[in-house]
Amino acid sequence: MPGRRTYLIFRALPIAALALHLIIRLEFPAPTLLTDLILFNLIAFSACISVASSPLFNSGKVRIPITLAIGFWAIASAISTWNSFYGYELLPWLINSLYLAFYPLLLFGISNSIAQRRSSALDFMESVIVALGISGVMSAIFLKSAMQKFDGSALTVFFSILFPFGDLVMVASILAIMRRSQFHLRNILLIGGAIIFATTDLYFLWKSSLGTYAFASITDDGWLIGLVLIAQAMWVRAEDGESQRERSWLFLGVLTLASAVLIAAALKPGSFPLFVILLCFAAIALSFLRLILALRQARSLAEHREAARMDELTGLTNRRGFISHLDELLKSSGTLLLLDLDGFKKVNDGHGHLIGDQLLKSVAKRFSRAISMQAQIARLGGDEFGVIIYGSPDIGLDAAMALRATLSYPIILPSATVSVGVSIGSIYHAAQEGQVVTREELLRKADSAMYQAKRDGLGIKQEV
Questions:
Q1: What is the side-by-side strand order in the sheet with 460-463?
Q2: The pTM is what?
Q3: Any residues with CB less than 8 A from the CB of 297 and at least 6 apart, and which?
Q4: pLDDT tens-place string over residues 84-113
Q5: Closest Cα partner for 340 from 401, 420, 429, 410?
Q6: C-alpha distances in angstroms, 138 versus 24, 31, 129, 203, 204?
Q7: Nearest Cα to Cα of residue 349 among 287, 399, 298, 420
Q8: Whole-number Å distance between alpha carbons of 130 and 177
Q9: Local structure of residue 220 (DSSP, 8 states)
Q10: CA gap 112, 299 in Å, rounded
Q11: What values do phi and psi take at 389, rounded to 5?
């Protein structure tokens, strides 16, 4: 199949070219046009082509930005290498612009590849906090020594190491996203390639600050190794499965504390450049904002859960919420009451559903006022209600009589005055060791007692 063979060539070419380059470099360390201008940049361009030719399981949000990132870096590298061989200063603004564009593009592509699930606003903010915290701490460590090697202001030093600083931010951001993702081959290749690339840049900064960097050294291949690993990751399908959802509260706390310590240390003039302090301050500010949003989200979640257990018409607990309260009754002692209105269908059919709904709301209010705060009351559906009364059987019977008494006089509605009664089935439950009683059994007995009370006109029927 020619198409498949072509794809395999695109995948294998960066690896083969990199292996050849390493062998030549080790055997012939001296810089040459063939090795360091042509073959070196051919590897970068072949990695770009490899990503562009990768299988279609990579979405456009992954393939396109990574292809552009590696392509921009390859063009900048080719121009920079040409300048190094021939002593030119061609297009420095273009070289810096292309190198600078590499970081956000690669970060965007890798982030989309690693993030296998839809993230919430809190997930995104947490990743930003981790990225800012790591960037601030690492910048303080590296820039402190770098400022001793470079002449000029903090801003000058910052621009002198802008690209390695970009590596710190990129790796910090990827690590922040990686915390919630699976560790499989694709992600390992992605994060490994980014770290190797960033390490090479940081080593380049260190050697340059010492004035001992040698052009076309074996360490320069670290850039290529990082790019080739990223390209190979695009050929590996991500494994299925749930991403890790644990929240690293301790990790966030340590980073926030470290940022606060750096800001405190910065009170001494000249301790750190301004942008390092701004990074740490941003991490702390976002940490507090995240805490506020987390509290709001928790409150909103609680409200949604409450709404899911509430009857919209009467404001009482619905059947779902009542079942959960019934589970609590099984662990203690109390009475289950099931109530069914007498004459509701006649009112509903004769006056309409609007009057019927108003009647149900009025009945719910009367029932709620007749029971204690510790009791649980719910509308189970239609004109059926449920009540749980904790305590002795006498307390349950008194509650049933009080509930029935609430409907002993007419209910005045906005456009009608109606009268209804109620039939109540009662079952007492006392938790005993070794005795297993299910909620279905309790409901069945109470329901049977309720229908017997309705059929025989008893008002209240206690089931033993």
A1: 376-381, 384-390, 333-342, 421-430, 460-463
A2: 0.52
A3: 122
A4: 888 777 887 788 788 878 888 887 787 777
A5: 420
A6: 35, 33, 14, 14, 16
A7: 420
A8: 9
A9: G
A10: 30
A11: -115, 120
